[in-house]
Amino acid sequence: MSKLKCEKGSILGPWGHQWPDDASPEPKIGFLQGILQWLDYHIKKINDDYKNRESFSIFKLKPNIDELHSILKERKGNWIHFNSLPFYPNEHFQRNHLLIDKNQEINQKTIKYYLSFQSLTTEIISNDSLPRKISFLSPQETGLASGNSLGWGNIQSPDHSIDQREDDGRSLCFDSLPLDENYELFGFPTVKLNLSSNTNYGLICVRFSMIDEKTFTFNSYFTWNP
């Protein structure tokens, strides 16, 4: 959307593959009313109050620490709004040789970790006693606790992630030390890996989870089928 020169707008909510006035989980919004306001302002040239509305609205999710169920009626979070689309450098731009628009970058604080043997460290650790290569083959059912990648927005559908300890037992895990301050995370996590395989095909899934006192909460994931 950053390349579009016409009038544009976007609403990203917690819903599945369904209209946001009828989808689950909540909060629902008056989608038809929003479309009517858009058309009144941009087509009929009325409803001047609409010009003060931000172009992009995103529902920033909060971890459902106390509601780790595959069926959820409501997601916790809050709406954030932008007049210009934030830009987050990621592998997609580098891989496709797309130009990066520096004017769209936002001030952001990044947290960088390095993979060590079964741990995440804030600095590169050089230790000859640790293995430089880790071999791993996860079972086929790994990822069942992560929920559906494209939920249908039906209150009866078990679309959402559950306690991640089940999948952690099938995965190669790297843990950081406890964070010494609270963070509000928003954006796109990235990971760089050096990999090799003894077969022509493979599937890589990277999960990003939060460890709480009682639960392991699923935050984000990425899959790649090279």
UniProtKB/TrEMBL annotation:
InterPro entries: Galactose-bd-like_sf (IPR008979), Xaa-Pro_dipept_C (IPR013736). This is Xaa-Pro dipeptidyl-peptidase C-terminal domain-containing protein. GO terms for molecular function: dipeptidyl-peptidase activity. Gene3D superfamilies: Galactose-binding domain-like (2.60.120.260). Residues 147-208 form the Xaa-Pro dipeptidyl-peptidase C-terminal domain. Pfam families: PepX_C (PF08530). It comes from the Eukaryota.
